[in-house]
Amino acid sequence: MVVDARGSWCPGPLMELVRVIQEEAVGTEFELLSSDEGSRKDIPLWIDKAGHQLLQITNEPGFDRFIIRKSHA
Amino acid sequence: MKRVIVLGGGIGGTTVANRIRKGLEAEVAAGQVQIQVVDREGIHAYQPGYLMVVFDKMRPEETKRDESGLLHRSIQLVRAEIEKIDPAANKVVLKGGKELPYDVLVIATGSVIHPEAVPGFTEGAHSFYDLANAQKLRTAIQQFTGGKILIAVAGMPYKCPVAPLEVTFMLDDYLRTRGLRDKTEIHYAYPIPKVFGIDTVAQPMQRLMAERGISIHVPFNVERIDPVGKTVKGVEGETIPFDLLIAIPPHRGSDVVGASGLGDKGNWIPTDRFALKVEGKENIYVLGDATNIPISKAGSTADYEAEVVAHNVVAAARGESPSARYDGRVYCWIMTGMSQATYIKFDYLHPPHPPTPSFAHYWNKVIYNRTYWDITARALY
Q1: Among A50, B4, B119, B150, which residue has the least CB neighbours within 10 Å?
Q2: Is A3 exposed, middle or buried (0-12, 13-18, 19+ CB in 10 A)?
Q3: Chain CA centroid to CA B188, Å
Q4: CB contact under 8 A, A42 and B194
C-alpha cells in the first residue's frame, strides 16, 4: 500500500503512517513517501517504539521511501 | 441548462458555490447554469470558533448562521439529507427518493467525529469539536479548581491538527490569570515521538511547553479511557491519570461517501491532489475535509481548494481547459496563549516556519473570525 505523504507538513508523514497502520491488517506492507527530512529520524524511532518492522529506506531525489510492515494489531 | 451541484454547506461548499456563481454570473442570470447546494440542516457552522467558545472569546451563536443568508440569492439551497451519489447516472439521490441530476458535482461533505469509537470517550472525555461539547468544556474549565489536566489525541485523522497545541497553551494562560496554574499540572500527549508532525513546528512548540511547565507524553496513542478511575491507557503501555481530560475524537468521512462507494476505509475520497477531482471521475470534484489528501483538514485548506475548483468548473462550463492546480496551500493560526498567536503557512513544496508568537498574529485571527461571514463565506475577494 502506497502512502504518498510528500508535501504533508501538517499533520505530517508520520501522522499519516500511524493513521493507515491502524486501519490495515497485520502483515500489510506500506510504501511511505516523505519529503520531510525529519522523517529519517522520526519514522525509525516510532516504528521501533510501536514494534513494527522497517524493511528499507531509500533516498530518492527530493524525498525518501520507507518500506514498513505492520507486525501486530 | 448545465447543473452544478455542491454537496455540503460548510466552509468549502459555501465558498465554492459562491465562487462558481461569481465566475458564471451571466450564465446563471440567463438560466444557462443552475447551482444547487445540498445541506441536511442548512445551518452553516464556523467550526474554528468552537475553541474560542471554550475560552469565552466567541459566543456560541457567533459560530453559526443560516446558510441561505450566505449563498448568493441565485443559488438554490436544498435542505435535505443525501442518501447517496450515483456517479454512473450523474445524479444525487436524497433520502425519500428524490433525485437531483448533475453535470458537475462538487463534494464538500466534510468529516464527522466518532467519539464512540474509543471506549470510555463519551463518558470520560471533554472535547471541543462540536458546539455542545465546547460549551460543556467551557463550564468544566470555569468550575475547575486545580488538579491534573490531560490533553490527548484519541484517533486520526482529526481536523485542525494544531488544535491540541492551541487548547494546551490557552488553558495554561487562562489558569495563570485565574491564579490556578500552581495548583494544576498540564499534561500533553501526542501520538508520535514529538509534539507535532514536523520539526519546524514541533521544536518551537516544545520550547514553549518547557517554558510553561507543560509535561509531554510522546508517543501516546489512546487505547481506552476509564471514566470512573479517571485514567487514559495508551497503546504504548503508559497509563496517565487525570482530573480533567480534553481529548480529540476520531474523525471519519461522511457516511454518504461510503454509501456511494467513493471512499476508502475511513470514508475519505481518493483525490487527485492537484486537480481536486475524485480519482477516475472527470466531472466530480472534492474539497475540504472529505479528501484523502495528507494535509491539514482545516477551513483554510477548503477555502484555497475552493478557488481552484471554482476556477476549473467555470473554465469547463465555458469550454476552456480546466487548468488550475491546487498547490497544497494552507494557512492556520496557532493560539499560543489567550491573546497571542503564531501561524503556519505552507504548500506541497514549502514547509512552514512559524514566526515568534505575538499579539499582532492573534489580532489577525480575531479579525478573520469576525469577517469570515461577510467576506470569506460570500467569496467577496
Answers
A1: B119
A2: buried
A3: 21
A4: yes
- Which residue of A15, A37, A39 is the best one to mutate when testing the B interface, meaning the one whose CB has the most B CBs within 10 A? A15
- What is the spatial distance between Cα B332 and Cα B265, in angstroms, rounded to a whole number? 27
* Catalytic residue flag (residue A10): yes
Phi, psi (rounded to 5 degrees) for B79: -90, 100
Q: Which sign does the torsion angle of CA B128, B129, B133, B134 carry?
A: positive
Q: What is the pTM of this model?
A: 0.96
What's the CA dihedral at A30, B290, B45, B103 to 10 degrees? 170
State how far the Cα of B103 lies from the Cα of B255, in Å rounded to an integer.
23
Q: Which set of grid coordinates corresponds to residue A42?
A: 522520526
Residues A44, A34: contact at Cβ < 8 Å? no
Chain segment B118-150, per-residue pLDDT in tens: 999 999 999 999 999 999 999 999 999 999 999
Q: ipTM of the assembly? A: 0.88
CATH number of B2-110+254-330: 3.50.50.60
CB contacts < 8 A, A to B, total 86
Range of the domain at A52: 2-69
Domain ranges of chain B: 2-110+254-330, 115-250
Q: Which residue of chain A comes nearest to B296, CA vs CA? A: A10
